[in-house]
Design a protein that fits this description.
- There is one protein chain.
- The chain is mostly helical.
- The protein has one domain.
- Helices cover 75% and strands 0% of the residues.
- Helix 1 packs antiparallel against helix 2.
- The protein is elongated.
- 1% of the residues are buried.
């Protein structure tokens, strides 16, 4: 075998780069194809959810009117019957708001994650700082 038959390092690197580029192009083409199918299915799914939510809203309106007319059938004036149904919705909205506010007040910042993220730059630089103190659960008080 002569030295002319052996590939040079430059040619090997060029071939490897060409192969990697071709591989990446094929992977990107495949990803685009898969995403088109996924986005189409996701869009149709989202549209169906929106349509069903609209029908749900219509059902709530129709049931509310039905409840009001059942109250009218019990002998109450229609104005009062519809006011009672509206009052029930107002009460429900207030309860949901109060529960929502209580849940939102429980939200806190992810302090452990923030602390760990602050240590990343110094760790990448190879600096050895004080390690983060491990979180030890409080002992249970069982008897």
């Amino acid at each position: 075998m002569s030295t002319q038959d052996e590939p040079t390092i430059g040619r090997l690197i060029g071939d490897a780069l060409r192969d990697i580029t071709l591989l990446l192009q094929k992977v990107i083409t495949l990803a685009k194809s898969e995403l088109r199918v996924s986005v189409k299915a996701g869009g149709i799914g989202a549209a169906l959810f929106l349509v069903s939510a609209f029908f749900g809203l219509l059902i709530i309106v129709m049931l509310s009117i039905s409840v009001a007319y059942f109250i009218v059938m019990a002998g109450l004036d229609p104005a009062w019957a519809f006011l009672i149904v509206a009052g029930i919705y107002l009460l429900l909205a207030v309860v949901l708001i109060l529960v929502g506010v209580r849940l939102i007040k429980k939200v806190s910042a992810p302090e452990k994650t923030i602390a760990a993220a602050k240590e990343i730059p110094s760790a990448l630089k190879g600096e050895t700082g004080t390690p983060a103190t491990p979180v030890v659960p409080a002992p249970s008080h069982r008897r």
